Structure prediction request, 235 residues.
Amino acid sequence: MKTSVLIIAHNEEKYIEKCITSILNQNEKPDEIVLVAHNCADKTVEISKKYPIKIIEFKGETGIIQARLKGIENLSGDIILCIDGDSCAEKNWIEEMKKLFQKNVVLIGSYVKLSGGIFNSIGNFFNKLSCTKSNNATHWIWGPSFGFLGKDKDKIQTGFLKSIEIREKLKLSRDVDDYMLGLFIKRYGDIRITNKTYVTTNIKERGFLNEVKRSIENIQNGLRVDKFLKNSLKN
Prediction:
């Protein structure tokens, strides 16, 4: 089966080289790597051109969801794995992620290690232990590390479009497109998470208070989405 890796990047000149090389140096090599450079005004594209990957310079609406949609349109793999340009994958990432695809599995993810200070380090410890034990796998689908089957591309795209609608209705302070994707896609099958591999993502917010604020915002936005969806079902 052909494996495609999608990288999304917006002005990631600081991290993009490490991201690309982490995919090229996988134990199990991908058949296709596509980078969507979304409204980049730095050296992201220039750096990326040194490597044997397909680069799409996408000038479009702001927002990571738009970049994901553009990338998915240009992927041809039977298995599609997604990572962000400010992240890097462990060498066994492709290998372990592919193992998650079994009967009825429509969406997969891995433990995501957050860079940063003390707060994120504590969170990393508990997240790694608990991510595969949670009954609600949707909480563990994170943008820097998720995947799906090529045959389900239409469902994934629809899920992202739905997340845009909800985000605009609720005027969320942060995108929670990955969480909403999980909520949408689970109607079609199972979601599986692994902590046998991981992706490290570089958090833009630095400092203990900023890390706490980000975490609180994510929780609040998630709760607002849950409440909205429950009310929609009642109506």
